[in-house]
Amino acid sequence: MLFNIGINVLTFFFFFSFNDVIVLDFPSLKISEREPPSSPSRNVEKLHPIERPDKGGTLAIRTARLRVNHFPVKFNPDSIIRHYDIDVKPMVASKHGRPSRISKSDLAMIRNKLFEDDPAQFPLSMTAYDGEKNIFSAVELPTGNFNVNLEEEDMKTRSYIFTIKHVNELKLGKLKDYLIGNLLTVPRDILQGMDVVMKENPTRHRISVGRSFHPVEPYPEDDLGYGLTASRGFQHGLKATSQGLALCLDYSVLAFRKRMSLLDFLHEHIRYFGRPNFRDWVTVDRALMGLKVTVTHRKTKQKFTIGGLTRQSTQQLSFLVEDLEKKVPPRQVRLVDYFWEKYQIDIKFKDIPCLDLGRNGRKNYVPMEFCELVEGQIYPKDKLLKPAGLLLKGMSLAPPQDRETMISQMVQSGDGPCGRGIAQNFGIDVNTNMTRVVGRILGRPELKLAGPDGKAIKITVDAEKCQWNLVGKAVVEGRRIERWAVLDFSYYSENYDRLNPNHFIPKFIARCKNLGMHVSNPVLYEPASMKQLENVDGLYQLLERVTTRASQMCRGQLQILVCVMDTRHSGYKYLKWISETRIGVVTQCCLSGHANSAKDQYLANLALKINAKLGGSNVELIDRLPYFEGEGHVMFVGADVNHPGSRDTTSPSIAAVVATVNWPAANRYVARVRPQGHRTEKILNFGDMCLELVDSYDRLNKVKPEKIVIFRDGVSEGQFDMVLNEELIPLKRAFQRRDYYPTITLIVAQKRHQTRFFPESRRDGGSTGNVPPGTVVDTTIVHPFEFDFYLCSHYGSLGTSKPTHYHVLWDEHRFTSDQLQKLIYNMCFTFARCTKPVSLVPPVYYADLVAYRGRLYHETVMEGQSPPSVSSSSSSLTSSSLSSMASLDEKSYRLHTDLENIMFFV
């Protein structure tokens, strides 16, 4: 016992006391794979995020004074927040014997009723509730079982047993120790408790939707039409920073269905609804399925979920009524008669269906006229009509001055996180003035392109926007394209967007020539119909026939197939899955309208994507990447996981890993994609996927990379431990099994945060009011002692720029702040698809594209497509054969061997 404690203390001392000492020297560390994960001796192997190597960077061509939406939080370190666990159960068990699920709205009502009945023992203003299992209190609460009775109509009551159990005392002094560096493990329980406290006031007075809070009543000017409204809300959270604890709050906009009568909603939302001959009940059913409503014919606040429409009209509906005392036999009652007898209400609209609001298989028919939509129900923005979508987008992309004003108003509002005195009751006080910081503007790199004669030329990017143009310039390395074909799905289009190949093809070839890409005439032009995108069997046969025929005509493998469509189509995902996993041909899709316009910029963008897909190099840095100017190969890795939608409870998550395969240019990538368990953030096959990428690097360069820099996307601070200990350590073990010991740096890139920068004056910002590209902040608002910084690498032309938050978890290359910040900023200029720096370091950007492509593969597989044999041209993609195929079958996602080492995904 004493021996183990001694080892842990010693390890703790060495790991955190000396920046140059790393206890976990992996190149010499041999990890026994037979040792169980729970073995005490393995505790010394646990990794923690590294400390900042210096006091921040110093490189800058100039500085900028900024305001940041971080609001300093003061708290009394002697305070204690008491944490209680609650359990709520109905007094009477359900008839079917299964525990009844109590909705969050009902839980809130039950909690409020208990506290209102006995405010002396349960002071509402001194407590905060997370809506489910946890209550945090500034004072001691009684524990045990308490009866709560909620009154309903007809003098009925629902009775519950409310159990309170003391869990923990959160001493805020522990948080102070962490903020000043005396404690090196984040007290997450304290931060979570304080976060619930800061959310209590908006929870009580606003609509809570996910992590954001929205006003109960929308502004009239935000009406989107069709029964919808835009809602201006906010998200906020607490962050541990160098200046202490801070509240970070940002403005957000969502589209909601209005709180209104259900019939009024349908009149606004569905065309021709209410007319005498209206019969499109399928559209009505789709529009209402799953929505929540309250009823007006009863005095109840209960919310019901719409299960669908009845097949019969209201006047045709009847149901069996049983006497609870069994004194009279059951009788069949018409719904219209029941409402008259029970409520003295005459149903007006008898010739339309009712709603089914039943649960657990029980029917509950309610006429639509007695239902109202519940507030705060999100309407998907991708389903908005174009005018409404543009209005919502305009509100979301608020310019910096407008966003800053709205944020300040929300922080200071009575229904915001600082209002009503709730936070103050816990000894928490928020300064409602934004934090001021000084940002540094990094110098932009010089780039390499080619001149008209093909020789390399040096270019300097635009001073304000950091963009460059391709007029009179060529790509660094243009691919010769001699074997390509056009598959024109717009050929039979009935609208005006039918492709004019005699106009598009010569213009495209000429533009490619100007960019240094030799492109011959296509070997095949194949007319097709958009309807062929709907049938996967037919589409597979079409693609196989076209690629085979084209290859025979050019006596070689087809390099690329350009697919022209007259509009965006769901069959896009079928086309990509078939071509990239089954046939093995690179495709480039384009819209006929854009192709016909043949604008110079559009054709250039098309050419850049095709050149990158075929292994060309569009732009490179003149100088080598900072820090890695010496000998030895370096590989940059990007990793991301794409999760299914919120309502999808079964689909797998998709893991994607990409890596560079050329050095020192480091602008060509290869990718691997794998399905894994539903909503699993940990990349389960990270080691194997990285080994495949290292092998690809080795085959192309005849040498393995000596240094690897990994950028991990999509993880929160609470998942850093998982990334370090469940992804990095298994990766190193996989490398060790190959007797391969590269040095590794691991960095998390976060875009899902609320931090925003606002220039104090025109001199500090650009023409749009945003910070300039290359703005970096690594003081005041960053972590108290870990290695992180914010970098805004792109030019913000619309809305308010959001910086990327980079957090270094592990570093065997011993980067300084200046070296790593300059490295990442320079890399942002090497993205293949555009002529400007991007907002996210390219390995992460590409990994996100690949993960999304994997999501398209999954959708194709699950919609009824079984994978044919790659070698068999007669294989059929029948819908029935997929039903027996598991969605986690990696064969359905594995790239064709001809595409494994190219950038098919750009």
Can you describe what's shown?
The protein starts with a helix and ends in a 44-residue tail after the last helix. The protein is an alpha+beta fold and 906 residues long. The strands form 8 sheets. The chain has an 11-stranded mixed β-sheet, with helices on both faces. Strands 2, 8, 9, 10, 11, 12, 21 and 22 form an 8-stranded antiparallel β-sheet that branches. Helix 11 crosses helix 15, helix 12 crosses helix 13 (572-583) and helix 13 packs across helix 19 (842-862). Helices cover 26% and strands 25% of the residues. The chain is built from 19 helices and 39 strands. It folds into 5 domains: 1-46, no CATH class; 75-258 and 390-430, no CATH class; 262-374, paz domain, CATH 2.170.260.10; 478-616 and 863-868 and 876-899, Response regulator (Rossmann fold), CATH 3.40.50; 630-852, Nucleotidyltransferase, domain 5, CATH 3.30.420.10. The radius of gyration is 31 Å and the shape is globular. Pfam families: ArgoL1, ArgoN, PAZ, Piwi. Keywords: Repressor, Ribonucleoprotein, RNA-mediated gene silencing. InterPro entries: ArgoL1, Argonaute_N, PAZ_dom, PAZ_dom_sf, Piwi, Piwi_ago-like, RNaseH-like_sf, RNaseH_sf. Belongs to the argonaute family. Ago subfamily.
